[in-house]
Fold:
Amino acid sequence: MSAAFIFLALVGLASAAPNGLRGNDGTADGFPPLQPLRAVAYGALPCSPSAPCKEGLPSEDMVQEGYLPQWGLPGRDDLGTIKALGGNSIRLYHSFGLNSTKDHGKFLDRAQELKLNVMPGMHSNEPAGVCPDFDCFESWKEATAEGFKLGYQRGESWHPAVAAVILMNEPDFYENDAMCKPAGAWCRVKAVISALDGILTAEREAGVEPGRVKLAVTWSFAMRRSIDGTVEGPGTFGFQDMVAAVANTSLAGYKPRTPLKQLQEAFRTRWIHALNTQAPWTFVHEFVSQHYAQFEPTPWFIGEYGANGQPEATIKADLDSMQSTAAEGGSFLGAAVFQFQTAYNKGGSELNFGLFSLGRMKLGETGEVCDRKSPCRTWPVYCLESKLSWLPDTLALRAEAVASAWDGSLSALSSC
Structure:
């Protein structure tokens, strides 16, 4: 058998391989692979005790150009800080769907300079307003198409910094929406499957090749039963929801606009399962590992690693273990640490999260930021502190824990 024949045969087998990390190693553009994933969740609203946002919240779409003084240069350079921590990816929320008309390409360009994978998320907090009877097809299609115009498209492809799009964040809570009648799993599943249909249609209509861009939904770690009744467990119910609904969309009362075979092929080749959790990594790993064989070879990741109330040593140990597990090359990709900055606007237990707090030193102002919910205006930009002063002992040293586990540094952080 000739060497050329063997080579061609191997290429054919690889191209037919089911969803793993093929096409997502990032080597062509110099981006790191998604395995191991070392991401930081980013929703750094400029609200703090010094600037409490009493007159209403700023736009939650952090990718828009007006926030450049926070995430870019010249400015506080939060993206550079994530890179210095040892991160290789950034997970975002509300990046599509809030109808911001501002440029989003500069954020992606800065991420490309740093070789940070970007995982933008769709705004998915208000199903009643944008998803009639939980059919999100039109809204997700339109949001994606608008995103392409604002910088997410480069030529006939996604911007090279985009590694994955998170279609929804914890849609299982749609069951609690007053519109979900009769109450049940169909609401969350119809919303997700129609959102997937919408983004695939937007790609086709815009002539955008998927390239390396994966697709995901981050489910909560609540205990629920899958739509087909075959899986019960935290997070994994959602994994089975997708498997069952892609095989039979009528389970959720949905008829896809995308040809079913194309929808199924996109799921097979592009989907990655995901869940958010505040639970200890040891428990999450043990539970998911015991039940994941049925979902292989589709990979999975933790979309929010909360580490609520955990000291520095525990966070470091968890992240070390996650890295080791991901480096084995199995189904687990890694995690996004929740979150870059404390969400002062939420208060309560949300103050337990955040790698950084906001100091009192004002560095400047944002540009004009706005969307359909938040009027256009500028906001103050404050310096970052790596200690959450209201938490006791090493619970306050979350950034130090991450930098230590990821072989990173806090040296790039400007004096506050």
Notes: The CA atoms of residues 311 and 395 lie 4 Å apart. The first strand starts at residue 37 and ends at 42. Residues 185-206 form the longest helix (22 residues). Confidence is low (pLDDT under 50) at residues 1-17.
